[in-house]
Amino acid sequence: MAIRSNHYDAAFEQYLRRLRVPYVAVDEQRRALAADASLKSFDFIVARPDGRREGERGSWLVDVKGRRFPTGGPGGGRWENWVTAEDVECLLKWETVFGGGSRAVLVFAYDLAEGETAGCEAPFVWGGRRYAFFAVTAADYATAMTSRSESWATVNLPRADFDRLRVPFAELL
After folding, report:
1. Which tens digit of pLDDT belongs to each residue from 84-113?
2. What are the DSSP calls for 72-96, one per residue?
3. How many Cα neighbours within 13 Å face the side chain of 161?
């Protein structure tokens, strides 16, 4: 297990271990070179189950994005899902590099406020916190994303699109 100072990444790794899903934690300290470009690393390579589609095997290339839920103050309830445009661009390039049925996915790891379930039947409990993990493929995210901040180069999904595209990560397994 990698040493992780980010509690969202650490919780997701423990989640995979508890589910006994084969994975590799990626060393994010250095950018990788692919062809002639420097690519931002993702967090995990997670084995996809065999037989998902006939003849298709590969891995989930996972970039974990930690967020609090809900956000927006009293009565807020917003599902923050912003990422950098570079996050999406690099994930799509990694998907091409890996090929062979591998799919890049953004996993939004929500640290749930006390009493919040985020629609999960059983939130994942670890380290004194409760988490919900939702995934959106990088390809779907890229298709529906809108600019959030040009100065910070961030993008996000409008709520209706996020509601439509996200799935509990466990469904991918």
Report:
1. 999 999 999 999 988 878 999 999 999 998
2. SSTT--B----EEHHHHHHHHHHHH
3. 15
